[in-house]
Design a protein that fits this description.
With 163 residues, the chain is an alpha+beta fold. It is built from 7 helices and 6 strands, in the order H-H-E-H-H-E-H-H-E-E-E-E-H.
Length: 163
């Protein structure tokens, strides 16, 4: 995985819900993840963590906050040059399928895999639709089936980013 420290952006990505988060943090990347969550809403419920659907609402809130700093055009530029990394889903299988047989009673492993992949597809669609009238997420999405948003641009990587 690419780390923000490797890219020279900052040492770590702070959590979006950190009350000490400053404007610079918002502009250089934040993490929306909740450890132990998964695409399956049951995973978050069993684990007592923030579900992915709430994390997606924080993305919308984040965009609104960034618009207050950069305006709509600046936010659109920032978002379009951002890398969205999703690493989630493992806990769905561990918690709901293998440790607790909750989903195993309803799905074969292949069916549950398809179920989780459909939830991933829906998550990506919500992210792509996350926008204000001029801000739309068309950033590269890297999926490692944790959840964060880091500003990254071609100058940082030394080559242009493409969808």
């Amino acid at each position: 995985m690419i780390t923000v420290s490797y890219l020279g952006l900052k040492e770590t990505i702070p959590p979006y819900l950190d009350y000490t988060l400053g404007d610079k943090d918002l502009l250089t990347g934040v993490n929306f993840a909740s450890a132990g969550s998964g695409f399956d809403p049951l995973t978050a419920k069993i684990s007592g963590v923030i579900p992915v659907c709430d994390q997606l609402e924080y993305v919308e809130e984040y965009i609104y906050r960034v618009e207050k700093i950069l305006g709509r055009e600046g936010t659109a530029a920032l978002i379009s040059n951002s890398l969205i990394l999703i690493a989630c889903g493992g806990n769905d299988f561990i918690v709901n399928y293998f440790v607790l047989p909750v989903r195993r009673q309803k799905f074969s492993v292949e069916e549950y895999q398809d179920f989780v992949l459909e939830l991933l597809r829906q998550t990506i669609q919500v992210l792509k639709r996350s926008h204000t009238p001029t801000t739309k997420m068309s950033s590269p999405v890297s999926v490692a089936i944790n959840f964060g948003l880091t500003s990254i641009n071609s100058k940082t990587l030394g080559s242009p980013l493409t969808d």
